Amino acid sequence: MDAALKAVAEPRRREILRIVWSEELPATEIAVRVGEVTRSAVSQHLAVLKGANLVVERRDGTRRLYRSNHQEMARLRSFLDEYWTTGLERLRDAVEAHERNTGGTHG
Amino acid sequence: MDAALKAVAEPRRREILRIVWSEELPATEIAVRVGEVTRSAVSQHLAVLKGANLVVERRDGTRRLYRSNHQEMARLRSFLDEYWTTGLERLRDAVEAHERNTGGTHG
DNA sequence: CGCTTGGTTCAGTTGACACTTACGCAAGTC
DNA sequence: GACTTGCGTAAGTGTCAACTGAACCAAGCG
């Protein structure tokens, strides 16, 4: 999930994600549409996105087709929803640990 | 919004955001709870978060109290929801522009 | 004014990373 | 097997950002 957030934080990778959002495309075609950078750069971005499970790769002979992984994107979204509030219990644990260490200096 | 995503991509800043999620705290106290890094580092993180409007600062004499900006967090969440799908119109523009350039190589 | 407390900002270091060029590798075609 | 197409990987470079330590600014106290 950390990897997913970092991946999405990159504008170029967001662009790629949008390009393959509604259609499956080969790496070269993605690189053409992105423009401005080399195929190599796009390939490396695709590797990062694949590592974060944000895109799915399908092989077709010598070609590799990519598409966005909507499911993982949804997970990312719900992470942003729940991480903070769900963390309240963990936060309270942290506060209690802190109070044990300091003698309760802040409350 | 780009700034917000980049800010949230940093684990330390996410930690800070969660620390001040449900209570307003002074910078030093935040630094103590974060631990592991200096006040200076935390101060710089707070500046980034403030720049992304993800935290709000309130001055109280010599102290500065921080808290998470839930509203902006909600905006960030809905951005992740809508960016890709809303972008379909823009994507179609891009595709059409691409087809004008290539003569429609991909169907 | 000097001192303390709370906090930011400046200068410099270090590691990560986006990028390019060059090369390597797989899969077809002849 | 040579040649081409499609794409990943390796090596090297420049830039950015997270961090530390020191200096600095603001506010209260004597």
Explain what this protein looks like in three dimensions.
The structure is a homodimer of 107-residue chains. Chain A has five helices and three strands, in the order ααβααββα. Chain A has helices at 2-8, 11-19, 27-34, 39-51, 70-102; strands at 25-26, 55-60, 63-68. Chain A is an alpha+beta fold. A three-stranded antiparallel beta sheet of chain A has the order 1-3-2. In chain A, α2 (11-19) crosses α4 and α3 crosses α4. Chains A and B meet through α1, α2, α3 and α5 of A and α1, α2, α3, α5 and α6 of B. Chain B binds a DNA duplex (30 and 30 nucleotides) through residues 10, 12, 26-28, 31, 37-41, 43-48, 61-64.
Provide a concise account of the structure shown.
2 copies of one chain form a homodimer. Chain A is an alpha+beta fold and 107 residues long.
Shape assignment of chain A = elongated
Class inferred from helices and paired strands of chain A: alpha+beta
Q: What spatial order of strands do you see in the largest sheet of chain A?
A: 1-3-2
Mean pLDDT of chain A: 84
Order of helices and strands of chain A: HHEHHEEH
State the helicity of chain A in percent bands.
Answer: 55-70%
Largest sheet of chain A: 3 strands, antiparallel
* Multimeric status of the protein: homodimer
Pick out the low-confidence regions of chain A. 94-107
How large a portion of the residues of chain A is in β-strands, by DSSP E? 5-15%
- Give me the number of helical elements of chain A: 5
**End-to-end distance of chain A:** 34 Å
* Total number of beta strands of chain A: 3
Largest interface: A-B, 33 and 31 residues
